[in-house]
Amino acid sequence: MSQRGDLNKTLNFYTIPSNLLTGTVTFAAHIGNATRSETLPFVPGKKLRIAWVAMPYRPPQPPPPGSNPTDILPSQDIANKAIADLISLYPVAAGDVTYVFQPEFKQSIRLPFACSSNDGCPADTQYLRGLNDFWNRMSREGKWVNGVRPDRLYGWVPEAAPRNICGIADAIWSNPQKRKGRVAAGIDSCGGETLAHELGHILDDKGLRHTPNRPPEEDSRCAGVPEGPAGDYPSTRVYPWVPLENGA
Ligand SMILES: [Zn+2]
User: Fold this and answer.
1) How far is the CA of 247 from the centre of ligand 1 (A)?
2) What is the CA(106)–ligand 1 centre distance, in A?
3) Which domain holds residue 158?
4) For residue 63, is pLDDT > 90?
5) How far is the CA of 24 from the centre of ligand 1 (A)?
6) How many domains does the chain have?
7) What are the C-alpha distances in Å from 26 to residues 21, 29, 50, 52, 238?
8) pLDDT tens for each residue of 182-235
9) Does any domain span residue 51?
10) Cα 51 to averaged position of ligand 1 atoms, centre (Å)
């Protein structure tokens, strides 16, 4: 049974005395007959500035006579609280992460938050492209909050949008020619786990990867089809990342 979503059954390190934060540290894990150890140097932590936008979804049905079409916005409450999951899941200090609301995203999105082999991937062509266009516009017009360009941008999408995924990231590793590694998007009701998952894919230019799903769907969908790591994992390939559920 998967324990990936249970923080009490994963390895988490919260505090290390400051006088130990030099030199190297060796982690060793022994599970059954399998062992693995890794020695890593301490390096300065990175500051991370994340901006988020509310992506308005406009349902396709015509509005009642005399009224204007209504955009549906994501839950501001969920969006505000979701950053706590990222801070608890990643080795970042709470004070090193800045998470700010970025206004000015006004473009209504009208297509489902979805990807399928039949209908293409409006989650990519509408949502990620919309976020990348927005990134360029804010940079060009100098409209980033407090005049500071964020490291990453996350688009919250209301649950009212039809969907078949929880989130999607513009991860460079998925297509180095096309991707920029700056933006990701997710449905509000999928919450902070999806935020952490998607931003994990683009935390740096390399980005965190999934455990290898079984071919032919490897890495094409975060949930993986069939779900779960490939049978040879991790004996033949080592990936640094264990995926959360329901992301993309
Ligand atoms: Zn993923």
Assistant:
1) 5
2) 27
3) 47-201
4) no
5) 30
6) 1
7) 13, 10, 31, 36, 18
8) 999 999 999 999 999 899 889 876 777 776 655 544 555 554 445 556 565 555
9) yes
10) 20
Collect residues with CB below 5 Å from ion ligand 1.
222, 247
pLDDT at residue 56, as a whole number: 96
The CATH number of residue 90's host domain is 3.40.390
List phi, psi (to 5°) of 11.
-85, 120
**For residue 22, what are its two tokens?**
């030099």
Q: Are 139 and 149 in contact (CB under 8 A)?
A: yes
Q: How far is the CA of 21 from the centre of ligand 1 (A)?
A: 31
> Could you tell me if residue 173 is inside a domain?
yes
The pLDDT score that the predictor gives to residue 121 is 86
Bridge-partner residues for 24, per DSSP?
Answer: 41
CA–CA–CA angle 181, 73, 81 (5° rounding): 65
Separation of 52 CA from ligand 1 center, angstroms? 19
- Let me know if residue 119 belongs to a domain: yes
What amino acid occupies position 31? I
Domain membership flag for residue 37: no
